[in-house]
Automatic annotation (TrEMBL):
<keyword id="KW-0812">Transmembrane</keyword>
<keyword id="KW-1133">Transmembrane helix</keyword>
<dbReference type="Pfam" id="PF04116">
    <property type="entry name" value="FA_hydroxylase"/>
</dbReference>
<feature type="transmembrane region" description="Helical">
    <location>
        <begin position="46"/>
        <end position="67"/>
    </location>
</feature>
<dbReference type="InterPro" id="IPR050307">
    <property type="entry name" value="Sterol_Desaturase_Related"/>
</dbReference>
<keyword id="KW-0472">Membrane</keyword>
<feature type="transmembrane region" description="Helical">
    <location>
        <begin position="87"/>
        <end position="108"/>
    </location>
</feature>
<dbReference type="InterPro" id="IPR006694">
    <property type="entry name" value="Fatty_acid_hydroxylase"/>
</dbReference>
<feature type="domain" description="Fatty acid hydroxylase">
    <location>
        <begin position="88"/>
        <end position="224"/>
    </location>
</feature>
<feature type="transmembrane region" description="Helical">
    <location>
        <begin position="141"/>
        <end position="165"/>
    </location>
</feature>
<feature type="transmembrane region" description="Helical">
    <location>
        <begin position="6"/>
        <end position="25"/>
    </location>
</feature>
<protein>
    <submittedName>
        <fullName>Sterol desaturase family protein</fullName>
    </submittedName>
</protein>
């Protein structure tokens, strides 16, 4: 646990560098906005979110898991099960919670105002997977902490889940192309870039599909899966309709103020 921040930081920068290199060598789509401005803003909000989380929740998810384990709180600290089962089931349960949370952020108007910061990006690349409003990050962590305590998720499970979720979010937001056969195979195990790109379509019915960040199974089981965008991956429009053609969507101050704009976003995005 002492090395957990360094492990996570190393995985973060390693995956970010690999995905960035892949995108530079073989991009899936041409970007609409300045890459450097977007990266500065999208990575800038990551730095802001990290500082905010460390200030408000210094223990973070792993620390809360350690406390729950010491105190014997939660389901897996009560049930007598092999350690590997507790780890595996905790990772699956936490992933399902993230799926439900994502659906909720689309369904409730107040939460959608926050989540619009993620969807307003006019391009789709590895940094889009890191672009979230600080208030959404705080709410997301609060939900995760409650789930960890109720589950009694082992510390190892929480560390693995955080690394997996962060890594797959960068992977499935990548502006990269996979061979169709490989993409079709991987979709049984993980959300692929082509699968998640549909979720960033300007068409509301497509925006309300493919909510998974890591595992694709919840979309299959709960009827929120859509295989391909109607306009094809090369022809589809990324982002939200009301922000098309607005260069300010790639600027950090605009991203921070978006949820507080009057007269927009009062509605949730519904089917």
């Amino acid at each position: 646990m002492e090395n957990e921040p360094l492990i996570r930081l190393g995985c973060f920068f390693g995956i970010l560098a690999l995905m960035g290199l892949w995108e530079a060598i073989a991009p899936r789509r041409q970007l609409q906005q300045s890459k450097w401005q977007r990266w500065f803003s999208n990575l800038g909000i990551v730095v802001l979110n990290t500082l905010l989380l460390r200030a408000i929740f210094p223990l973070a998810a792993v620390g809360v898991a350690a406390i729950a384990q010491d105190q014997g709180w939660g389901l897996f600290n009560i049930l007598s099960r092999p350690a590997w089962q507790g780890i595996l089931l905790s990772i699956l349960a936490l992933d399902f919670v993230i799926y439900l949370q994502h659906v909720m952020f689309h369904a409730l108007p107040t939460l959608w105002r926050l989540h619009k910061v993620h969807h307003a990006d006019l391009d789709f690349d590895v940094t889009t997977g890191l672009r979230f409003h600080p208030l959404e990050i705080l709410l997301s962590l609060a939900i995760k902490l409650v789930a960890i305590v109720l589950l009694g998720a082992p510390v190892v499970a929480v560390i693995l889940f955080e690394i997996i979720l962060n890594g797959t979010a960068m992977f499935n937001h990548g502006n990269v192309r996979l061979p169709k056969g490989l993409d079709r195979l991987l979709r049984f195990l993980v959300v692929t870039p082509d699968m998640h790109r549909v979720h960033h379509s300007v068409i509301p019915s497509e925006t309300n599909s493919n909510f998974g960040f890591n595992l694709p199974w919840w979309d299959y089981l709960l009827g929120t899966y859509q295989a391909q965008p109607a306009a094809s991956h090369d022809g589809m429009t990324i982002g939200l309709g009301e922000y098309q053609g607005k260069p300010e969507v790639g600027q950090l101050p605009w991203m921070l103020l978006l949820p507080f704009e009057k007269g927009i976003g009062e509605e949730s995005i519904r089917r």
